[in-house]
Amino acid sequence: MTQGRSSAPFGPLGVMRNWLRSAPSTAPRQRRSGASHVVSWVILILAILYFFVPLLATFLHSIKPRPNDIPDPTLAYRQVLADEGFFIGLGYSFLAGIITIIISLLIIVPTAYWVRLKVPRLRPVVEFVTLMPFVVPPVVFVFGLIRTYGGPPFGLLSTNAGSDFVLVAAYVILSFPYMYRAVDTGLAAIDVRTLTEASQSLGASWTRILLRVIFPNLRTAILSGAFLTLAIVVGEYTIATYLARNQAFGPYLSLLGRSAPYTPAVVTLISFALTWIAMGMIALLGRGGRQGVQVAGAR
Amino acid sequence: MSYLVLSDVRKQFGEFVAVESFNLSAERGEFVSFLGPSGCGKTTTLRMIAGFEQPTAGSIVLDGVDITQRPPNRRNVGMVFQSYALFPNMTVGDNVGFGLKVRKRPADQIRKRVGELLELMNLPDKVNRYPYQLSGGQQQRVALARALAFEPQVLLLDEPLSALDAKIRVALRQEIRAIQRQLGITTVYVTHDQEEALSLSDRVVVMSEGRMEQVGTPFEIYNFPSTAFVASFVGTLNVLPGVVTDAARGELTINGQPVRLAQAFEGKVGRDVSVALRPEMVSLGDARDGQNRLTGKVTDVSFLGSIVRMRIALGDGGATVLLDSFNEPTLTLPQLGDTVTINFPQDGPLVLDAKAPVESVEALIAEA
Asked: What ipTM score was computed for the predicted complex, to two decimals?
């Protein structure tokens, strides 16, 4: 769990940054024994292999020529890009992701800000609540939603719009652990109380303080939480299967895997690429700040 | 009627009383400092004027208007914080113009006012810089410009120089005073640094444990402390144990040696009292007519730049007197262990509190 300036950065990039920091150093004060160096490098190489070998295998599988076919490594890629379902699924999930991010931000930023400013003793409670998606299995969660909102008095799942609404609501809850931690770490990096009081003494209202002072200073933290949320939503399978009428990207990927041998590998690589593009955007957009890349707002 | 009036202001956090019976009337354009050790309630009082804390009791009136219940953003009070509190996402110009933008002033008017203030702060070329590109002193100047930009009725400064190094602190405090005089703005300044409070203020409020100990001009506070705490907290002070011999005639003994005060005081014969004596009131050598003289042994001599401070143990060493002498080239210094005579005028010592004699300056400060 990340708290405060000195805590570990959050998210995959943060983990990697910490991991790389712990790699062998040539600084005299931190000089380690030769054996320790070797162990560190072995661990690093194993970790890289563990991560990249499956990707490489997937890529090789995706360009493998089919039996009795003209060798064409791009065939599977062309098939995927020609499939309307791919774009429908991706578009649907991206749209759901964007709406999720907006709603999640509107809930999380004021909440995390208020908790830090006015009721810091409630922080552990709020943290626990936001962790619920990690505690409740997605299948239990989605059946709970179906039972509660599918029938009377709500009956939300009887229409497409209702289903989409419940799906986005479920994704908003699913985004809480990522978004809250990112925003909370960002808030820890700025002096929220003094900045708020400075704004108040200058005559600013609560809305202005949030929009002109707090939100802009959480830019990188918000971006980090947003892209993590987007990556989670785009790849989500369980909830989408029951609520998205097979339109979402996750179920599309699953269906494809059952019917075609090569194209799922292509789609997997594309989804990976999209995730990494999202991560790269965090780095690029975060560069405008005073200290370059900030993962999850950790400065 | 005074411009800023705090009447019977009290602040309680649960069972803890942070500020008690605080009464202050500040005139328009006056510079008032709240001086005291950490936890004495000075910042809490300032925060109540700013509106960040709500008084448990009492009222705050500004220019005839009761602002006790007003939220901070509707008080028209400028504040400068110890940590500068500049908005990191905004340039210097945007920071300074923030209060004016909130008040929906026209853009050209904001630009003009920002330019004027940055000129006043000697930062005209920094308008497009970000706070992180400035030094601490420059950041605090920007914070001051920002607090002044919207022409607040009162300027509040909460230990604004604490985070700066010594040289910049002295330079900036002179600038703050000059700007305050130039603009004629009523100012309340919080500090635990007595030198800052004494050099800047028209009046100083010395506080301890949530109470006002004394309100007065720096001259009054330093030369006529009304309580043992003020005497010990402001300046360096000898606190000597005395025994009353004739209070009506101003006579007592210090370590068995007779001392006469210019004024009578209260106290029965034989009663223990604490006698305050500033080091600069004490001189080496025999007393002139009418002056007090004590003898003792030199236990320490230390150079403090322009001043040489000597420590003299009286008699059996039960009391120690600090003595300050200007560091002149012709100064003849005694050796450690020498027996010397020291003298001080009759109006030098002050009987602090006949009821509660205090052993030493350290004890007084520890009590605070």
From this structure: 0.80
